[in-house]
Amino acid sequence: MKTVCLFFQVHQPFRHRRYHFFDIGNDHYYYDDFTNESIMNKIATKSYLPTNKLLLKLANQLRSNFKVSFSITGQALEQFQLYAPEVIESFQKLVKTGCVEFLSETYSHSLSSLKDKIIFEEQIKLHDKKIVELFGIQPRVFRNTEMIYSDEIGAHVAELGYTAMLTEGAKHVLGWKSPNYLYVNALNPRLKVLMRNFKLSDDIAFRFADTNWSDYPLTAEKFISWLENINPKDEVVNLFLSYEAIGDRQAKETGIFNFLESLLVKIAKHPSLKLATPSEMIEELQPISIVSVPTPISWADEERDLTAWLGNGMQKEAFGKLYSLSEQIRRCTDEELLKDWNYLQVSDHFYYMSTKYFSDGKDHSYNNPFNTPFEAFVNYMNVLSDFKIRLNSFVPVNEIDSEIASLHNIIIEKVEKIKKLEANILALQKRERRKK
Hints:
The chain is 50% helix and 12% strand. With 436 residues, the chain is α/β, with parallel strands linked by helices. The protein has 3 domains: 2-291, 7-stranded beta/alpha barrel, CATH 3.20.110.20; 307-399; 400-436. The protein is globular and about 95 Å long.
């Protein structure tokens, strides 16, 4: 009996507005509310709501034979609450079926695991608190941002009490080994490692509607035959996808919903296939060996490395400047600053700066609000510069920063006084004109 693990990742960032140099120190609101709301409503209508409706139908129809897992970032949940609360309600209905597992994530879909262990832990705690609050589920399995994983990151996750972690079944890591088994972390064997079958996952997520693909059109029957033809000794097939692939990247008109419904029904009723959540898999299966990942991997692009976010000088500069503020942030108690700090960490900001426009160029431009990587970099650095000024005013690093913050506050006060005086002058002028 082969186990199929179907997992969806749900994330939407708070995108920045065009934030110019002359906004620095003058305007502290960074977000493009119109774009964020428009994109969220579009994807909710095309993807989240109809797919959740379909999965709820299948859960009620197939009952214990149906299983699906999600990880949803805190930023996505916040946007649901702001713009599409019905999406949260639809996930809550799915939870009530008992067929769903929610995985842990970083709240901001951040790259903190690569830079700061304390902030990484804070991100995870913030995320899990939100999941418990909305869905009443305490996550046991961890899925890092973009499936970033290494031996060291996995060992740290194990120390935090998680039983398993999801990552990419990268060829350069596995070599001759198959991703279709359960593995363990090389530094802490208590942590089980589930590896994505990227070929079969991407057949659905990226190639489904590609008329130039040699296997087009993809049908449920064809996909089932591929599962049946996998080496009989292989035990699991991990299908890990972005949720937007269903209904947005692959539009309803492609037949993606009919395909997904037919596929899941056929797996659930198949004599030698079954659906399971990650937690169920690690309880039922025995790991076959360790998997050694000394250098971080991800599920992005052909290289399966970090270059989508940290592959050029602009990305590294922005990343370094952001986390150089870590010590100050630890001493900050201002809620608005902490909220903006969380939003600044989202990995999408660095992804927009990517210059990897090769075979993956189309994917790098998906919902990218900027025309060029340089434009994304300049915009982000302007926002970060203003944020740093605000942070210094609350948590000065040294006497110079304290003096600058004090002068900045004086300037703001003077500007406010000038505005009030100008308003009074205008009122007096109007009064005089009326007398005449």
